[in-house]
Amino acid sequence: MLVTGSKLLGYAVLSLHVGGEIARTVEPIIDPEGLKILGYTLDGPLIRGEVGDILDISSVREFAPQGMIVDSVDEFVNREDVVRMDKVMALNFGLVGLKVVTEGDENLGKVSDYTVDTESFMIYQLIVRRPTLKSLVDPELTINRSQIVEVDDYKVVVKNEKKNVSVEERAKDFKPNFVNPFAEPQFSQIRSRNPDESEVQ
Q1: What share of the chain is helix, strand, coil (3-state, %, to 5)?
Q2: Which of 119, 184, 155 is nearest to 143 (CA)?
Q3: What Cα–Cα distance (Å) separates residue 121 from each residue in 20, 126, 134, 170?
Q4: What is the DSSP string of 13-76?
Q5: CATH architecture entry for 2-91
Q6: For residue 173, pLDDT beyond 50
Q7: What pLDDT score was predicted for residue 162?
Q8: What is the pLDDT at residue 168?
Q9: What is each CA distance from 54 to 25, 45, 78, 167, in whole angstroms?
Q10: What does the alpha-carbon distance between residue 128 and residue 104 come to, in Å, rounded to a whole number?
Q11: Is the pLDDT higher at 130 or at 182?
C-alpha cells in the first residue's frame, strides 16, 4: 500500500505493552543508495529519558490509522547501536527539496513529497513540484523509482523519456486491511436468508 511520506511525519508510535502512544516520528532516515526508509527519529516524554531516540522500521509490527505499532519502548535504539543506521544518518541526506533534472539537464522541478510502500518502506514515487512557468500546465509530476538514474546531495537525475514521467494524483490516505488492536470493536449486521427462498437446482 502506498502513502505519502509527509503523512508519516508526526505519526504516533503505539506500544502493545502499554496499550497506547509512546512517541511520535520526527524525520525519516532515508538510505540514498536504495531510496529506502530505514527508520525514524522520535520525540516524546519517554525519549528524553534513557531509551533510544530512533525507531528501526524493522521493529514495526503493524500500521494503523492511529499509528505505527511496536511491542514496547524497548524497540527504540540509538544511532550508535545500529552501524548501518549510523552511517546513513552521518550523510544527513534529505529527499524533499532536491532538484529533479533529466539526463539532458532539463529542470523538472523540486521534490515536494514522495510515496512509500508501507510493506517494504521503499520510496516508490517522487512527487515533483514544477517550476513556476511549467506549473501553469502541470502543477506536479509523479516519477516512478524505476526512472531514477542517480541521486546525490543536490539533485535527482531521471531518464529523458518524457513518456515515462507522468502527472498523477497524490497517493490517497492509506486504509489498512488488518485487524487493529487499538480500534474500538465494530459489529456488522448479518442478513439472514429469507426462509421462503429455495435453492435453484
Answers
A1: 15, 40, 45
A2: 155
A3: 23, 14, 31, 17
A4: EEETTTTEEEEEEEEEEEETTTTEEEEEEEESTTTTTTS-SEEEGGG--EEETTEEEES-GGGE
A5: Alpha-Beta Complex (3.90)
A6: no
A7: 55
A8: 46
A9: 9, 14, 6, 35
A10: 17
A11: 130
Residue 127 near residue 139, CB atoms below 8 Å: no
Q: Copy the grid coordinates of residue 116.
A: 512509500
Domain residue extents for the chain: 2-91, 99-164
pTM of the model: 0.75
Query: Is residue 79 classed as helix, strand or coil in its secondary structure?
Result: helix
Give residue-wise pLDDT tens across range 124-170: 999 999 886 665 566 789 999 999 999 999 999 999 855 444 444 43
Span of 95-99, 125-129, 181-185 with lowest mean pLDDT: 181-185
What gap in Å lies between CA 126 and CA 146, rounded to an integer? Answer: 11
CATH tag for 99-164 (out of 3.40.605.10, 2.30.30.240, 2.40.50.140, 3.40.50.1970): 2.30.30.240
